[in-house]
Each structure stands twice: as structure tokens, then as C-alpha cells.
Amino acid sequence: MAKISFLLCSILVLLAISEARNAPSIATINDSPSNLTKIYTKICDPQRFNDLGLDMDYFTYCDSSLSYGVRVKDLIDRMTLMEKVQQIGDTAYGVPRIGLAKYEWWSEALHGVSKVGQLNSKATFFDDVVPGATSFPCPITTTASFNQTLWKTIGQVVSTEARAMYNLGHAGLTFWSPNINVVRDPRWGRTLETPGEDPFVVGTYAANYVRGLQDIEGLESTDDPNSRPVKVAACCKHYAAYDVDSWLGVDRTTYDALVTEQDMLETFQKPFEMCVKEGDVMSVMCSFNRINGIPACADQKLLKDTLRGEWDLHGYIVSDCDSIEVMVDNQKWLHDEPEDAVSQAMKAGLDLDCGNYYTNYADKAVMQGKISEKDIDEALKNLYIVLMRLGFFDGSSKYESLGKQDVCSDENIELATQAAREGMVLLKNLNGTLPLNTDEIKTIAVVGPHANATTAMIGNYEGIPCKYTSPIDGFSKYAEVQYAMGCGDIMCKNASLIFPAMQAAKNADATVIVAGIDLNFLYAEIFMCLLSLRVGGITNYESLMSMNITHIYICIGVCVESAIWAEEVDKHVLGVSLLRKVCVESAIWAEEVDKHVLGVSLLWKCLSQVSFPVVKFLFTSIVIYLILVGVVRMYIAVTQRKHRKVKEVGKFKMNVGAIAFYQLMQVRQAEYFRQLLKPVT
Fold first, then answer.
1. Based on the domain organization, do 351 and 456 belong to the same domain?
2. Is 569 found in the same domain as 594?
3. Of the listed 31, 280, 320, 351, which one is catalytic?
4. Is 340 part of the annotated catalytic residue set?
């Protein structure tokens, strides 16, 4: 009996040794670029496996004759638990021993291939090989063209440049764009990223831009959507009811959007539904904020039930970066420990964590029984099927020839120029000033803080453009340009620079004032009046306009607030009329405006910028009068409508009269007014 046992053991040992010899060696595997002979555009390249000391035939996941589902299962089954969790963060670290490369999920393509991404990441970058990419207008401008064909064409050009950069080792294949949040307040700093305030227009833009990014001609639809090849993978974000950054102590990471079911369906979810159903987007990003008390990235109804269930998402769900960490550290959601938050998010349907909570805590959550390894397998399946469809494993013969010549081509730059033309909005053309007659206009004074702007015009989530054309560069093609800043910065605090600008305007045939805000205001406290054209600036620009009967105001930058001034400043009225024109953005979102009390608030904000004693005395008198009127009107409003607030579902409910009184009288301890200024709970 002992001899038989010994014989069986010997046979097993020999079989194990034989199997070990047939298995790939892992001693010298190194998936770093220095160990590879060239830049590989696909995982399953025999030469790449040879460089890594592996035999590709051993790995079923590289057998292109099999379905994506079978191949992905083989890939996942080869990983240990620790290896699996290292693939579900935005940096997927790869598994060298089985030939799986590292992959950076986070790239951006909001209005061109972007340089934005994870800190120190090389997911998408520019250098001497690829110095720039075509920069299109920000979405808020492109949307204003109302040209659906243009929206899709831009997406096609952006994805072509992205694939070319991928071939050169300078870009990824997954782009977390577009931003399709519905704008509920025009002062929101990120309005420029979005298609605007109308849910249907936002959804239509999303579907067209996503189709442009993703679709391969002739393969727009297939019998099995989960196997449809795509050009690059888009991502609609931020899901949902997300349109605030920093406002009166409210922060985007902890904000709780209180939204009715009707408004969720009709306003906040509608663009995402269109993006998934009509655009067949491959990814959706959940947002930081809570919705009716529940963090968006831990809400099973929002993610698993709606996105993947009702809308049939064919792709993956990713978190806004560090959302799970925010749930634990900022929101104190259920007083969860990291493992609890990870399990909540994964069970809700979150596949990929932009952050390090999944990679740091998912294995512990499994060991503690809060999630199963099958939950992680399901997330990995969703992720790697997307990469299979992108050609990350097998390549894409249609795009293999793309290279540097396909980035920043003349045709692409002309399309960007055409998009800018179509997206511009002419607010007013008094006396038919435009177009300028080049036979009569020989000299143009181009003044203002943005007259020589470059980066301020590019917006955020930007790349490096192929080239810059500043306003003075553009006007120089048509006339002799006299350039003067007029203001030291966009706030026009330095009035000394107005005199050279006035002289330039006096000597020119026409004056063009180029102003607006810049990215410094993007995430700033947004309840402010005169974001770019404070009263000092208005006075300065009026001085310029008085020097020349032909004057044009151009608002560029990232918001719409100062463009309202283009209605034409009444130079004879320095009171409420002028200031309300300039400051109207501070109240444009309110459904009810007590004009007298609002006038007090706006005048008070603007008064601090006035440096002329006589004008200041006049303004002060107006303010005192309006304070008395406003207090009386507010008292009546408060007594008759004590608990009434302006209805703005998912935003801030505010009584404009209370705002004015609160700001004017500096009643910081008045708890009642504090409550009016807070989001309704």
C-alpha cells in the first residue's frame, strides 16, 4: 500500500513539473516600455508577448475567433483577488505575468483632445512628437449653432486625432467627455463645459457628439451592442442633479440636491437617458453630490436599476474622481468605514473608481464578506469588454495608418473656425454698425483686458491648441490695429491704463472693446455682481466709447454675464438703469424679483467700486431711499409669505428681498435670513 502511495505521489510530482515547464515563465516578465522593442497599439501582438518572454498562444483571451465574453472570462479567471482589485481604479496596473498591460482610463476630449487627467499620468499628453491638437469652441458656444451635423462632425474629428495620438503612444482610448449637466444658474462657473439649460438640447448635443466620437462608419449598430466595435469610448457626466461648485458655504462634494421625481425624470436624467439610448455611450460618470440624501455613486436605483437596467447601458459606470473617499470623509455617509463605502458603491453598480478606494479596500471588503469576488468579476467584465470593443487587445486596422499628419490638419482647423463662426451670438447691432466697411475703416483701436487674449479663449478641459489667434491678430488682417489694454486685468481695478486706450480710440476709425471673465472664476464663489465689468470698468469703457462713434463690444471668456452689457449703455443714466443692466446676472435665475429691493442689493455691490465723490453721493442717496422702500416691502413679503421661497428644484431657494437686506445690513447672525439663504432641507 505504501509503495502504491509513493508511486502515485511520484506521478503527481512529475505531472506538476511537466505542467510547470509548459506554463509561461514569470521570472523575467517586465511590461515597462523599456523592455518592449516598440510602441504596441494592441495587447495581443505576438512580438509583444515575445518581448515579455511569453507565448501568446497560451492565453485564450488573445484568441480573436472567440466571443468577447469568453475571452474576458479567461482573462479574469487568470487573476488572483489582489490582481483583480488593482484593475478597478482609474489606473489599472495590469498583470505582467499574464501579459496584461497597464492602462490609464482617464483622458478628456470635451472640445478637442485634452491634456487634463490624473496627476503625473501619461494617459494623454503633448510633447515634441505631438505638440498640440485641434481646439474647438467650448460646448456652450458650439451648442449655440444649433447644428446637429456640426456637433457630430466635431466628435468625428476629435476621435480621429485621438486615435492618431494613441498610435503614437500619446493618448488613451477612453475619454470622459462630454459634460451634459443641465445649467440651472447662468453664474455657475462650469457653464462653458455644458450644452446649456434645456434638457432636450443638452441630450441632443450629447447623442450627436458621442456618436461622432464613438461610431465607426458602417458599424453604427449591430445585433449585439456589447460586441459593436467603436473608435473611442465617450462618457456622459456628471450623473445627476449636479450643477454647483462653491456657493455660500455649499460645496459640490457634500451638496444634497433635493429633487422631485418629476424633475429628476424631465430635467436632470433626460439628457443622460438620451445619451445612453440614442448615443449608445459606453460610459456614464456618477457625481459627487447626494440626491435626496443618497450619494449618487452609491444609489442602486440610479446606477444598476436605471442606467444598466432600464436604459440598457452597454459599457461601464465610473465615479467622479475620489467620490467614494468623499462619501467617507466629507459626507460621513452612514458613518461608513472605507470597506463599507466600497461595498455600497459596487453593489449599486459602480464598475470603476476614479480614485484609490477600490484598489485599496475592495479585497478587504471581500474578506469581510461585504461583497463577493463575483461582484468584482462583474465590474471587470464590463470594463474589459469595453477595451475589447476599442481594439485595445486586437488592434483596429481601420485606424492603424493614422499618425501625426492627422492631428492639427488644415481641414480640422478650418472646422474649428467654422464652429466658432456658427456659435457666435450677435446680441445687438445698433444702427447697423456691423459688418464694418473695410473701405472706410482703416484703423481699429482694439482695447480691453482680452484684446490680446490667448489661453483665456481656450476654456477648461483644454488641450494645447494647434495655434493661437488673438483678437488683435485677427483684426490685423483687415485694418491697422492700435492696441491698448485699457484695464490692468479683467476686473479693471487699475484705471490708469484707460488714458492710452482713450487716445487710441480717439485716433481710430472704430473701437473694439474685448472683455469678459476668465478661468480664475471657474470654481469661485459664484454669488457676485460684475464678474468682469465692475463699475470702474464701465466708467472706463464709457470714456472709450465717447471718443469714437463706432464702437463694438465683444465678450469672450467662459461665461455670459458681461455680454448683457452689450444691449448698449445709456451714457446719460448712471443710476439704477445702468447698474441693473450690468448686474442683472446676479438675479437672472430667480423666478420672482422684487425690483426695488434687488436694486438696493445690486447698487450696494457696485457702490464699493465707484471712486468719484459726486457719483458716490448720488448713489448713496438712491441706496438710502431704496433701503427704506425695500425694508417695508420685505416686511410685507415676510409676514404674508413667511415660508415661501422661490422654487428652483435641485438648486437654492431664495427670497430676493431677504438677500438684499441681509447683504446691506450685514446681519450675519440673523438665523432667519440664514435659513433663507441655505438650500431647503
1. no
2. no
3. 320
4. no
